[in-house]
Design goal:
mainly beta; 2 domains; OB fold (Dihydrolipoamide Acetyltransferase, E2P); 159 residues; single chain
Length: 159
Amino acid sequence: MSSSPDALTTPRLRTARVTRIEEHRCDVWSEDGNGSVGFAPMFPTPRVERVSPGHLVAIATGPGGADVVVWRWFDAVVLGTGSDGSVRLWEPAHGEVVARTRPSYRSQEPGSRVWASAGLPGADWWVADSAPHGADVELDEVRALYADNDLWASAFEPA
């Protein structure tokens, strides 16, 4: 990646599944294989209580080639669909939640596994399909959240 001023505003983002968690790093699996990745300094702590094996994470590659986790999606179970199109989910750390769907979300049967996220603008919770590779999660929204709040430069600073 170049070191131009725009390099920090548009880092490469990709997804991976968490396989093991420590406070400052997590092991992940993606179609590129297994690896170990650090967390962006602003990623909330304690991380071992917020990230679990099975979660999906967004990994950003910085201008120096360093990778950091900048976001995570919960592994959740579909409980049902509301008449307004919302989806009731169960997620171990949060219990039952109601999520809005992304435009690409395909209706899932109760008991199906999906990705759920909290904290992105527009809804308290969002739901996306759970394909392990190419999961249609809101990477563009994560990228925009970091860019709109000028977080990219600090995401790659040492913790």
